Protein 1
Amino acid sequence: MMCPSDIFESYSFMTFADQVANLVILAFPLSVAYTAWRVFVTERMGPRGNVMVLGLDESSATYSEMYPQKIPRWTLLLYFLTGFGTFSLGLLAFDTYKYVKALLMMVE
């Protein structure tokens, strides 16, 4: 499952930069609003179980300090396999789309 490289020849850097700029224009205000909400609203409501959500208080212990646990190897393996499977499924979907598109072009 390899992505064909012929589509990248027509995809210039300026096209990529333009699309990234549009994404930043859309995502930046939302991320600022979400961060402000977390800082000014969530922290003011009071933490659950004496655990600060953002850890803005210097005297508050972080979650890893309060509950020192390691991630089991099986969990890490499952995370890796899930990520690899999702990536492979994405490549398969892309290849299938290209195949169906080429097949439909031949029919016309």
Protein 2
Amino acid sequence: MTIKIPVEKIREGMKLALEKCNEHLVAAETLISKGSLNDAVALIEFAIEEFGRAVALKEILKKSSNKVEEELFKNHEYKYKKAWSVLPKELKTIYEGTFDVTQFSKTDFDVGKETISPRTRLDAVFVDYDVKLEKWKTGVRADGETLKHVIEGLREGLKAFVDC
């Protein structure tokens, strides 16, 4: 389903989404400096969604259309997909384990990786119980330096987006 938004309002929405994206990145940097990595992950993910919103709105403008998919306001995956259509895919990884997941046990070794996704955002901010591991989950694995790299990459993506 689509909604009609005047072209000048689409431009305004794109500008506002980019500003909100930057606000989230600034706040995430502050949280990283304080050691609050889970909260920083959540804000980085919000920044990615807002960037995805801006990408979608720009695509609509290029088509000279005023029809906006309702997904833009309701669907996290839709906005992530739009963001990753222009951002480097390596920015998705926020943590990579030391050991190979195919060779070592997840319960005993630091294996696997954490990647940006709507699920990761939820895991970063809520308490959940993992039935398979019989453990409470209270966050995600994240590395501060990696998060800083993701923020730098997002800023480069923002600059390239605005410049074109």
Protein 3
Amino acid sequence: MIKDFFIWLGIGMALLVLQATWFYGEEINPFRLDLVFILVTLLGTLSQFGLGILISAFLGMLVDILSWDMLGLTLTLYPLIFLLCHLVWTRTQLQSLWIQFVSIFVLQVLYVFLVQILLKINIGVEFSQIQVLYILVQGLITMLIGLPLVYLHRYLMKKRLPLHQ
């Protein structure tokens, strides 16, 4: 469990560094590639609830520190997204790759809408009509970036499962 925690935390930190450096810039704004969000949804597919909630909360706190002045926004929303993924994945038979891709899109759109609503309520940031289109495009981009990451996750988990049985 502790080994898994540090492995997933290391993956999350590496994705956070990539997200904050190489994949962030004026040429791709307003579309921000949210690699950490994809990791949080992938953690929701694991059966380890405690591990996933801790890592999603910790990564949410780091994203809050690096992204916004309002601490607690992603710290709250990442564990909520993890919880939704975990509940759907462990309590239903909806476990295909296509469901996972669609859930990344839907949850990304929900996540960004919640961020925009909370920023408008707390800070007074304006929310324009064009941002709705931006949110949908960002959800699509996140889903497309998630395709290879989901396949890699599935491949690594299939390789690893026989070691624990």
Protein 4
Amino acid sequence: MQARWLGKGVDLALLGGRVEDFFKGKGFKTRKDESAEGYTISGIPPRAHGIYGKVVVKILGNSNDFVIEFWASDHTRSAIKAGLVTTMFGGGSLLLRGLKSQEALERLEKEFWRRIEEAIPYLINSAKHAS
């Protein structure tokens, strides 16, 4: 999923830090990369989360026109597909793990967007006070 913000004047480096903090607070190992287009934050979940594969957030654009993209690797979808194909041969547990991973990803993404919506106004105010 992705969302776009216009005319906010948000410091994207601070926003990237907030995204990284979100994942670290969930026990994820993170990596933050900066490019000319923006920031990419990758999170690798601990096994306890039941999420297979990494989660990636991209922040693209500039402080007054930026997009945030949230996506997960294809590991969960692959597990579901493999489980469906092999269910008759005992692949039901793979299907169940894939479905649980998908549910965990959906919960994580919902919380992520809620946190972003809460952080943006604070980051706007911080940018105005810093000027």
